[in-house]
Amino acid sequence: EMMRRDWSSDVCSSDLTEAAPFILFFGHLVMLVVIWCSFTNEINGMDRYKSCIYVLFIWREWRWRKMDRVFQFPFVGGKKCIKADEIIYIETARHKNIFYVGDQTYSIYKKLDEIEEELKGMGFIRIHQSFLVNLRYVDKISSYVLYLSNGQELSVPKARYPAVKKQYMQYIGK
To answer: What is the pTM of this model?
Structure first.
């Protein structure tokens, strides 16, 4: 008798159902680009094939940034899938990292540096040795304090304040 593997423990259950419309849309996009490429000769001096690859690459990069990235973390209570955009901030306390997601918290035994690396490029900023914050939830930064949309106020050390403020201003486009 053949053993069956339970893939649900490895993949977030919503991954495949959420990916279906994306795959369908991507297939249509590829068809449009191929048709478009058959009528064009070049873009910015690139030949037809390079320009098609360039268009697909730009679209993929744009889509990747816009996509809700889902991560599976081995929390103390068991594995859980969380969208990066839903994480407000992560705090280190007593050798654990606590994820603040909406009105819920999840604890994990993992180094904050490792979590920061996993979430790199997703809009998170290290404001303190013990805090990793999602810039999406920052209302303002003033006088060494970061004000979050959930009412939480987090202290920013003097040494990190200029860099944190600069990253926040870049994030909001100022």
So the answer is: 0.65
